[in-house]
Amino acid sequence: MAEVLVLVDHVDGKVRKTTSELLTIARRLGEPSAVFIGSGFDAAKETLAKFGAAKVYRVESPDVLGHLIAPQAELLAQLVGSASPAAVLIPSNAEGKEIAARLAIKTESGLITDAVDVKPGEGGGVATTQSVFAGSYTVEATITKGTPIVTVKPNSAAPEEAPAAAADEVVDFAPSEAAKSARITESKEKQATGRPELTEAAIVVSGGRGTSGDFAPVEALADSLGAAVGASRAAVDAGWYPHTSQVGQTGKQVSPQLYVACGISGAIQHRAGMQTSKTIVAVNKDNEAPIFELVDFGVVGDLFKVLPQATEAIKAAKG
Amino acid sequence: MNIVVCVKYVPDAQADRTFNASDNTTDRENVDGLLSELDEYAVEAALKIVEAGEGEVTVLTVGPDQAADAIKKALQMGAHKGVHVKDDAIHGSDAPATSLVLAEAIKKLTADSPADLVITGMASTDGTMGVVPAMLAERLGLPAVTYAAELTVDGGTATIRRDGDVSTQTIEATLPALVSVTDQINEPRYPSFKGIMAAKKKPVEQLSLADLGLDAAQVGLDASWTKVDSFAARPPRAQGTIVTDEGDGGEKLAAFLAERKFI
Fold it and tell me: Which residue of A lies nearest to B136 if distances are taken between CA atoms?
């Protein structure tokens, strides 16, 4: 059976949920071979084995991670050449798409980004589903050239346990000089919030202009639900919340099970980032706010009254 | 400092965007278009650099006739000259082919005066793939520093700050380099009346595929490495329930969540 390369998304061996989703998808197309770059393999091995990685290609050279993504693209190109995989699956985040982009040119292969579903194509090849134009259209596509490369959005597949060997193989790889021409000179870790990552979370609670900068009720509601916290562009531009939390056309696009918009009017800029969420709830003082056109449930009212009351009720229900 | 900014003319995201049923490509005719919002930040970033020293900003686009409007807006902001690659054969090109056309155009227009920087937006607002900048860097053999929230150029080095999810990074590359910028990097200027008038006299060069030494077989729908098999409009959402808070709005919200098994 042909291999399917899966680029492992991890921090020092702590494997992110997206990797288990990609391994599950990879099993539809062939036999998963995880590609693990960096340190911490011993911590990761169990998870990779649990979700079906038959093989793991390992690269530990510090040269590879300190020079942005160009060396990772070179490594994957080398593996595409040696393993002739049926496909390459990469997480659909900023780094992943950049790696996929360079890899597509290096291997002259078709690339689909932000796939929400991946399956074998009719008559071979790889077929994908994407949600486009701010979620207003669904597109079915096929990759027709080279080794299909797909970047896959979080929450696109339910991870399935499928114990496999995760037999590791250290890859003899050194990046070219050209690949090392960009360098990270400083990296400041952000403080972990203890909340789930925005694009992976099952529930997102967002705040907008209506918070007037006070996100406390939004955060309290999020924490009662174990949710991630998002922010509208207005809130980010006002400096109330970091850009990495921005949901919208120029921020992140999320598609969680539940999205709660608090004090957000629902302009297209924002809707583009969340309108494919399965269930949408909004709280806003203005009964004509466009967000109410999207909701499954809405409360017209003051979020400083509604959210705390909801949070208390949720905590009580959870016991 | 010689800077090339790549821009894209895109259907207005506020309008109803759709596909052509004839060939499954994006409908670029029946919807009003404009310079992609994210590209304005790239133009502004380039202008700030040359205004601080000396140099020229050339704005480049690949697109149908109407894409001239994207160039016009950039010239009105202050870019010095424009280059518009247009050719019917380019219709339906995928990202790899788009990057090929852009790369060949850049090679041609910088043959006599090399570019120090190629600047792009982080992604287009229609395709939203965000891959053309890296593909372009790959084809041109340039380092790429992407998602810049801050950019400084000093003595042959470009340094950016990138605000990632897990960390904030300082990244640098020796020029020539490609830089992509986010919407956090600056506030794009509105063209002044003077800028609008001055733009009318600025040169815009039109190039065809033949001018770039490219063949129709290398681009367009048939040459694409991916194929759109079908598209479907998402069904509209069913009307939801809206209540007005009369002292119990929060409880009703919680009740809804319980009913939908979120708690």
Answer: A102
